[in-house]
Amino acid sequence: MARKASHTAIEERAPTPGALAGAADLRKQPAAARKKAVKPPGKLPAKVAALLKKAVKRPMDPNIRPMLATLVNEPPGSDEWIFEIKWDGYRSLAFMDKKATDLRSRNNKSFSQKFYPIQEALQAWGIRAVVDGEIVAVSDNGAANFGALQQWRSEADGELRYYVFDILWYDGHDLRDLPLTDRKTILEALIPATGAILSSPGYATSGKEFMQAVKELGLEGIMAKEKNSTYRSGDRARDWLKIKSGRRQEAVIGGYTKNEGSKKPFSALLVGFMENGKLVYSGKVGTGFTVRQQQEIMEKFKPLLRKRQPFTQEPDVNKPSRFRPNPPKAEAFWLKPELVCEVNYTEITSDGVMRHPSFEGLRDDKPAGEVKAEKETAVSEVTEEKPRRKVKMPLTPAGAKSRKTLLNPSADSQVRQVSGHELKFSNLDKIYWPKERITKRDMLNYYYQVAPFILPYLAGRPQSMNRYPNGIAGKSFYQKDVTATAPDWMRQYPYTTSEGEDKNFLVPEDAAAILWMANSGSIEMNPWNSTIQTPDHPDWCCLDLDPSEKNTFRQVIETALAVKEVIDGLGVKGYPKTSGSTGIHIYIPLNAKYTYDECQLFGKIIATKVHEMLPGYTSIERMTRNRKGKLYIDYLQNRPKATLAAPYSLRPKPGAPVSMPLHWEEVKPGLKITDFNIHNALDRIKSEGDLFKPVLGKGADLQKMLRRLERDSKKA
């Protein structure tokens, strides 16, 4: 059980300074209890076990980076947020496994030896987990004190605590995609009852009252976190906010001064902030030091001394001011700008200089190059969702960041603004994949997050919607005509049926169109191979390797590798992806330079050569009865209005698989269709980028390929 006092997961009322004092006062626990080894948690509560079942199973990621917060001017006012104390210490992730435990700073430096009591406490905890928290030191009054932490060398210098506020991975389960409140519920069940590891609870309360209570305790500030936020490693997110009690931040040390006749090691630090890779002067810091600190700091200065000053403009260290008309004569010494310190100040003047700065301590957990002047954002700008601009024919943005989920996990119907259009989402609790208990909400959140990557393969291409209004276990039907159902803002493309009726395809241009299709039950996205700009000229040639029930997936892989061998010999590049069902798709870029007839002939040449290489289990026969249970190399998909599942599309199959682009090196025995699904596809894309992007590129030269074929036939 987690220890009591104010360490409940979420308080339902506004905590007073007295109620918070138990959380902020680190003297409460007797020394004997702090030293006592803790036992690993026993059987987890049923509620926690149920939450773990919702998480994706995967090995521990040793490269998780901490999620960062946005600085705002005041706490948000809605009830969608919980609030935590902002601890005055070092942010640190703890990686705990059976064989190794490591405590790391926010810039991935090991704290394990430096703060060895916390390392020992983590080892004694005895769980397999990755947790996020803050290391703090205790001052004489029992509060977290950054100066005490900065000077900490051993237990003789005071007590250390590790306040844990999040859990990212536990015993084979990746928890980062669970809502924050679920992660905190799991964490509270695991926090040891004694020792140096404590919970940093979340309070569902008034942000303004919580901030007032924290100010009265003299604490650094508060954190505001959306209750349903996921953990976005390495991102500076807008669903985690920080609000400071006073003005305080890091600064880069670019030099120091020594006043004439002074016996102190130095008189003031010359500090600045980084702007566009250059150090901009922001003032002199002359208070807040002890003599011992100054001596230790001077030792760090020695290897960094340099002759040239590092600022964009040389500071005038002897400039008189209204308060010091006759300043003491000072000499400046310049340093390579590598050391970072923490500074308190009252305000920053119009020329960018801090007033009344005071030294708090050195920081070695953040690189100097990342230290910029923090500017508060109005909380209204951060918490109000703004419509996204409508885009046409986009390309995947380089280094695109992960989106957070669109829909919250509770309401069955929700209204959201997407790409500037209002969409109403309904029946969100409906189960679409029964075995895995994956809901319509899960599907919609996936398509919202994957939209920047799938959109280049959908934009401008008419769709044939395959609708599953009751999930994959219910009946499905195809819908091409959207004349009477699509909203006015959605683009349509006309066609005439064999009966002479005028109808319209849907043509997506933005994320709103994708989500409108998905909300109608379209689990998979099926675009044309050409756009409405060049409807008779496909952008790619595709080969669909479609196995029968008699084929193994190993044979599909061998056939794909044979395709690669053939096209490599023709001097053509191809790009494979899983179909998301039973086969593999291989796309060859054409850049809309050829007709569908020419494209299909090209596909037939490749398919024929592959069949000649693997006649035992492949076929190019169109009629199923003539294939005799062999794997079909389908080149006839290269025809007008034919569709295939787009890259990154979900498929209406058990396990919610995704049609996933592959490296050719991955097309080998051991590859499985189930390797890529709704749970891990976004992490895969974030890790590998858009592997299919070249499919929309320059395109193959079929004339050159035909000339090569003619030369080869003559040689034969």
UniProtKB/TrEMBL annotation:
Region (Disordered): 1-39
Keywords: ATP-binding, DNA damage, DNA recombination, DNA repair, DNA-binding, DNA-directed DNA polymerase, Exonuclease, Hydrolase, Ligase, Manganese, Metal-binding, Multifunctional enzyme, Nuclease, Nucleotide-binding, Nucleotidyltransferase, Transferase
Gene this chain is encoded by: ligD
The keyword Heme belongs to this UniProt entry's keyword annotation: no
Domain of life: Bacteria
Keyword Ribosomal protein: no
Pfam families reported for this sequence: DNA_ligase_A_C (PF04679), DNA_ligase_A_M (PF01068), LigD_Prim-Pol (PF21686)
One GO MF term: DNA ligase (ATP) activity
Name recorded for this polypeptide: DNA ligase (ATP)
Classification via CDD domains: Adenylation_DNA_ligase_LigD_LigC, LigD_Pol_like_2, OBF_DNA_ligase_LigD
Natural source organism: Chitinophaga pollutisoli
InterPro entries: DNA_ligase_ATP-dep_C, DNA_ligase_ATP-dep_cent, LigD_ligase_dom, LigD_pol_dom, NA-bd_OB-fold, NHEJ_ligase_prk, NHEJ_LigD
Enzyme class name: ligase
Required cofactor names: Mn(2+)
Catalytic reaction equation(s): ATP + (deoxyribonucleotide)n-3'-hydroxyl + 5'-phospho-(deoxyribonucleotide)m = (deoxyribonucleotide)n+m + AMP + diphosphate
Ranges for domain ATP-dependent DNA ligase family profile: 153-244
